[in-house]
User: Fold this.
Amino acid sequence: MSNDFYGLDQDRMVVLSLKPRFAEAILAGAKTVELRRTVPKIVVPTRALLYAASPVRALVGTCVITSVRSAGLAALWRKHGPRSDLSLDEFQQYFEGVTKGTALTLSDPQTLSRPIPLQDLRASPRNFRPPQSFAYVDTKTGNQLMRTSA
Assistant:
């Protein structure tokens, strides 16, 4: 995988913490929209690092966030539901208690040559801690984390 992300936000990347099934679906190209309750503060396009949460607990790949759109829940489901890999029940449970959500459109999924386990990420110079939902890392740190996979 190339570390040359020309045309992308060069200042920082986003780490998305995902259930393993969603990380796999993104990397397989089956999930092209990630739905979130919170709007990330990013310039698009931005490189996203995909962290598969428990029980995998590893950085598994990357993708590019090409758009960020917020909308009411009915419109969000109509427009993005089928590409989110969620059932309507899962969607409603996730967004319970809020009236709006955000769709992150994803492209260019790339699987790392080998997953980087959490213990290796924590041993990195930045003492990486996986986020609950998402977090920002500067591009230098993101590239260092990905090189651990090589």
Remarks:
- Helices lie at 20-28, 73-80, 88-94, 118-122, 139-147.
- The mean pLDDT is 90.
- Residues 69 and 119 are 34 Å apart (CA to CA).
- Strands lie at 12-18, 33-36, 46-52, 58-72, 100-117, 134-138.
